């Protein structure tokens, strides 16, 4: 007998969530591999959606760029800025001899995918490796990533249930007709509360200000990330980025909020955290 969609979603979550928690906790090459996989698959899913709009993403060269940007965050080779200059020049040369549809669309879609998955994905590694690799100090990065995961899940759930129960005012009907302002506010509030709770349980190395700011970032940019991916999917005329995860859609669907909020969290930790 076939499982219903809800049962499949629950079953996948039961196995996936503990695995993600373990990968985040141990960090190092384990978490690096996880980020490389989700960024690489998300880039491919994005390239398929872009193709439906007539853009032929340079998948091979784009994937190489995404992988390098993430690896370079883990083990510094040379400046990301210098790499991106070289990448852009080579990409232009590839497109010059490619003769495959609209050059403007091809270049724009490839660059968007590389920046979205490569740059944003690299900051996930930056957050996990933010604290020195010295005993308990290194574990702090694991606790922080796990807390960010949990806060995003709580934010999404609160937005869904709050919107279902009380939603009356459409948030962005052109992009996501089912989302409401009421649901977004629920998600925002619960994201901040979740980070404050995490600060009191496992993130004692953060200040209360840090916890509130990170919760604020997730509660706003995490939801904007979801809307941004919905914009891309609606433009491509698809419901999900792929059907890779049973009951959950694609990898890009599951990690859109994380990819969008992680760069600002990383910048905050780098320049403003105590």
Characterization of this structure:
The chain is mainly α and 274 residues long. It has one domain (5-271). It contains nine helices and two strands. β1 (170-172) and β2 (176-180) form a beta hairpin. α2 packs antiparallel against α3 (59-74) and α4 runs antiparallel to α5. The protein is globular, with a radius of gyration of 19 Å. The model has no long low-confidence stretch (mean pLDDT 92).
Question: Can I get a quick summary?
Answer:
This protein has helices at about 5-25, 30-50, 60-75, 80-100, 105-130, 135-165, 180-200, 210-235, 250-270; strands spanning about 170, 175-180. The chain has about 270 residues and is an all-alpha fold. Strands 1-2 form a two-stranded antiparallel sheet.
How would you describe the shape?
Answer: globular
Q: What is the rounded Rg?
A: 19 Å
Total domains, how many?
A: 1
| Range of helix content | over 70%
- Tell me the total number of β-strands: 2
Helix-strand string: HHHHHHEEHHH
Instruction: Give the strand line-up of the largest sheet.
Output: 1-2
The termini sit apart by 55 Å
Number of helices: 9
Relative strand content:
under 5%
């Amino acid at each position: 007998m076939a499982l219903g969609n809800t049962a499949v979603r629950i079953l996948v979550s039961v196995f996936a969530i503990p695995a993600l928690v373990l990968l985040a906790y141990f960090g190092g090459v384990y978490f690096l591999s996880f980020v490389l996989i989700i960024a690489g698959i998300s880039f491919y899913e994005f390239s398929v959606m872009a193709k439906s709009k007539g853009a032929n993403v340079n998948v091979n060269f784009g994937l190489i760029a995404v992988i390098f940007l993430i690896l370079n965050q883990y083990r510094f080779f040379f400046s990301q800025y210098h790499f991106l200059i070289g990448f852009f020049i080579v990409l232009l040369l590839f497109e010059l001899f490619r003769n495959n549809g609209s050059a403007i669309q091809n270049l724009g879609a490839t660059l968007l995918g590389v920046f979205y998955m490569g740059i944003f994905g690299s900051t996930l590694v930056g957050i996990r490796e933010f604290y020195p690799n010295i005993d308990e100090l290194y574990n702090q990065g694991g606790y922080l990533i796990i807390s960010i995961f949990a806060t995003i899940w709580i934010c999404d759930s609160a937005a869904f249930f709050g919107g279902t129960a009380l939603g009356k005012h459409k948030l962005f009907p052109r992009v996501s007709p089912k989302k409401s302002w009421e649901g977004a506010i629920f998600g925002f509030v619960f994201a901040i509360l979740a980070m404050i709770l995490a600060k009191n349980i496992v993130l004692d190395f953060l200040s209360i200000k840090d916890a509130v700011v990170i919760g604020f970032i997730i509660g706003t940019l995490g939801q904007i990330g979801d809307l941004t991916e919905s914009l891309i999917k609606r433009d491509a005329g698809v419901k999900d980025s792929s059907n890779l995860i049973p009951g959950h859609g694609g990898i890009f669907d599951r990690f859109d909020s994380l990819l969008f909020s992680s760069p600002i969290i990383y910048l905050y930790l780098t320049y403003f955290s105590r």
